[in-house]
Amino acid sequence: MLLTTKEAIEKRRSIRKFKPVPVPDEHITALLDAARLAPSGCNAQPWRFKVVRDSETKWNLAHAAYDQSFIAQAPVVLVCCADVEGYLRGTASGIQDLGQTGRLTTGLCKYFSGETARWTSR
Asked: CA-to-CA distance for 62 and 17, rounded, in angstroms?
Protein backbone atom coordinates (compact mmCIF):
# COMPACT_ATOMS: atom_id res chain seq x y z
CA MET A 1 0.00 0.00 0.00
CA LEU A 2 1.40 3.37 -0.98
CA LEU A 3 1.08 6.16 1.53
CA THR A 4 0.36 9.77 0.78
CA THR A 5 3.06 12.21 1.88
CA LYS A 6 0.91 13.27 4.83
CA GLU A 7 0.34 9.64 5.89
CA ALA A 8 4.06 8.86 5.61
CA ILE A 9 4.92 11.84 7.81
CA GLU A 10 2.24 10.99 10.38
CA LYS A 11 3.21 7.29 10.55
CA ARG A 12 6.96 7.76 10.61
CA ARG A 13 8.95 6.44 13.53
CA SER A 14 12.51 6.45 14.76
CA ILE A 15 14.30 3.12 14.81
CA ARG A 16 16.74 2.64 17.68
CA LYS A 17 17.36 -1.12 17.52
CA PHE A 18 18.77 -2.89 14.51
CA LYS A 19 19.16 -6.47 13.40
CA PRO A 20 22.79 -7.45 12.75
CA VAL A 21 21.92 -8.22 9.13
CA PRO A 22 23.79 -6.57 6.24
CA VAL A 23 21.72 -4.24 4.06
CA PRO A 24 21.86 -5.35 0.41
CA ASP A 25 23.65 -2.95 -1.94
CA GLU A 26 20.57 -2.77 -4.18
CA HIS A 27 18.52 -1.38 -1.25
CA ILE A 28 21.16 1.26 -0.54
CA THR A 29 21.34 2.18 -4.22
CA ALA A 30 17.54 2.55 -4.36
CA LEU A 31 17.59 4.85 -1.31
CA LEU A 32 20.40 6.97 -2.74
CA ASP A 33 18.65 7.21 -6.11
CA ALA A 34 15.49 8.46 -4.38
CA ALA A 35 17.46 10.94 -2.25
CA ARG A 36 19.37 12.42 -5.17
CA LEU A 37 16.09 13.14 -6.95
CA ALA A 38 14.79 15.32 -4.10
CA PRO A 39 14.08 18.88 -5.18
CA SER A 40 16.36 21.72 -4.12
CA GLY A 41 16.49 25.47 -4.61
CA CYS A 42 17.69 26.38 -8.12
CA ASN A 43 17.99 22.60 -8.62
CA ALA A 44 21.43 22.92 -7.03
CA GLN A 45 21.32 19.54 -5.28
CA PRO A 46 24.26 20.56 -3.07
CA TRP A 47 24.37 17.32 -1.16
CA ARG A 48 26.84 14.50 -1.08
CA PHE A 49 26.16 11.06 0.34
CA LYS A 50 28.48 8.69 2.15
CA VAL A 51 27.69 5.06 2.90
CA VAL A 52 29.34 4.04 6.18
CA ARG A 53 29.73 0.41 7.16
CA ASP A 54 32.92 0.32 9.23
CA SER A 55 32.48 0.26 13.00
CA GLU A 56 35.02 2.92 13.90
CA THR A 57 33.45 5.53 11.62
CA LYS A 58 29.96 4.65 12.87
CA TRP A 59 31.14 5.15 16.47
CA ASN A 60 32.69 8.48 15.52
CA LEU A 61 29.40 9.53 13.94
CA ALA A 62 27.48 8.41 17.03
CA HIS A 63 29.76 10.49 19.22
CA ALA A 64 29.43 13.51 16.90
CA ALA A 65 25.65 13.14 17.11
CA TYR A 66 25.69 13.87 20.85
CA ASP A 67 26.58 10.30 21.85
CA GLN A 68 23.56 8.61 20.30
CA SER A 69 25.10 5.13 20.45
CA PHE A 70 22.29 3.46 18.49
CA ILE A 71 23.78 5.03 15.35
CA ALA A 72 26.88 2.86 15.71
CA GLN A 73 24.73 -0.25 16.06
CA ALA A 74 23.11 0.11 12.64
CA PRO A 75 24.53 -2.21 9.97
CA VAL A 76 24.93 0.77 7.64
CA VAL A 77 24.67 4.54 8.10
CA LEU A 78 23.84 6.88 5.24
CA VAL A 79 25.36 10.31 5.79
CA CYS A 80 24.08 13.32 3.87
CA CYS A 81 26.43 16.30 3.76
CA ALA A 82 25.87 19.74 2.27
CA ASP A 83 28.42 20.79 -0.31
CA VAL A 84 28.23 24.42 0.80
CA GLU A 85 31.50 25.46 -0.81
CA GLY A 86 30.47 23.97 -4.14
CA TYR A 87 27.09 25.64 -3.77
CA LEU A 88 28.74 29.01 -3.15
CA ARG A 89 31.15 28.54 -6.06
CA GLY A 90 28.31 27.42 -8.28
CA THR A 91 29.94 24.07 -8.87
CA ALA A 92 27.64 21.91 -6.77
CA SER A 93 25.65 21.24 -9.93
CA GLY A 94 26.55 24.04 -12.30
CA ILE A 95 24.29 26.69 -10.76
CA GLN A 96 25.25 30.33 -10.58
CA ASP A 97 27.32 31.41 -7.60
CA LEU A 98 24.85 32.58 -4.96
CA GLY A 99 27.46 34.70 -3.21
CA GLN A 100 28.27 36.61 -6.38
CA THR A 101 24.60 37.14 -7.20
CA GLY A 102 23.99 38.69 -3.78
CA ARG A 103 21.61 36.01 -2.59
CA LEU A 104 23.74 35.41 0.49
CA THR A 105 25.14 38.08 2.77
CA THR A 106 28.86 38.77 2.76
CA GLY A 107 29.13 37.47 6.32
CA LEU A 108 27.53 34.14 5.41
CA CYS A 109 29.72 33.82 2.32
CA LYS A 110 32.83 34.42 4.45
CA TYR A 111 31.65 31.90 7.03
CA PHE A 112 30.87 29.20 4.48
CA SER A 113 34.06 29.82 2.52
CA GLY A 114 36.17 29.44 5.69
CA GLU A 115 37.34 33.05 5.87
CA THR A 116 35.83 33.37 9.37
CA ALA A 117 35.74 30.98 12.33
CA ARG A 118 33.57 27.92 11.87
CA TRP A 119 30.96 26.80 14.35
CA THR A 120 31.61 23.65 16.33
CA SER A 121 29.11 20.84 16.74
CA ARG A 122 28.70 21.58 20.44
From this structure: 14
